[in-house]
Here is the input.
Amino acid sequence: MAKGKKIKRSFKLILSIILLIIIGISCYFIYDKILNKTTVSSEVEKLMQENNISDDNYSKTLEYVLLNNIYNENYLEEYKDIEFRDQGNFANVLTTFLPKGYSGSEINYIFNLSDTNIEKLENIDYIDISNYYEYKNFDVSKIDRYNDYYEDNNYNYEDVVTYVNINLDLPVYTDTLEVDDPNSILVLVNKYNYLPKGYEPDDLAYLDGYYGNNVPVRGIIKEPFLELQKAAAEEAGIDFMPTTAYRGYSFQATLYNNYVASDGVAAADTYSARPGYSEHQTGLAIDLKNTALGDGIRLTDEDYEWLSNNAYRWGFIIRFPEDKTDITGYQFENWHIRYVGMDAAKIIYENDLTLEEYIDMHVTEY
Here is the structure.
């Protein structure tokens, strides 16, 4: 009998606990609803009533469009999905892109775009930007190229944006552009960008060369190179000497034409730049050789390992890395370094980028 009473008391206790839990949860939700209830001004309430809008449809964006007299009943459901933003272009984005067929969530994407991209988007019909809006180097004007390149290649959308931006979807040496500032230490000279006719740096300095010659370089890179050269000797016992650096248009034309005569255009283009398209003409690139090696070898794997892991300390990068030939358009050259400055070199090294990728992702504004 005592055992039965004990079980009964336990059962009642369990029921009481369950009841208390249920009451607690109910109170929480009631309290939360009261606490978080949005206070709607009488003016907004009146406007909602006049437009037959129920309380369930209230949002900060709805309040904004009502108060600013840009409410459109066709977009009532979309307003709930649009995050209100206290910024100058808020009304313009709503009134421009909702009529074009963009949903509320897509409007939120648009607010992540630059002003330049928003202006481009205003001038075209609806396009789906959901795969690209989050990338800061996304360019609205290239979206058809992005989509085509994505369909033709096994790349993710982030890489597609970068690769199309640096023109990898286009044939080389066609529709090329003249660089804006050939004197910039970040000037990009490749198979899509060429130097002005007759360009020559006006600050050439000279380094002692491997062949006993004076090797011309931009004056800005002389001291950084000498520091790199000294550190290589002290830290790794490597005596790096430049074989060539600045090469003028005529020099490059002779070199390239000799390669074409020997190996043909297609092969020559994989390891030699056409005249006007060589970054050697900028005076910012240097070809190196370990003086301890015979004439047939420039650097050993050990030499390259030290160079590739340390060149950034003085503002240099490996310009044509082994695993980036599809981006640079050139065969791997373990001896070819390029000066880009300390900040850029560090970012390029730490993120395993090419100069093309760095400029697109960190310099160009879209």
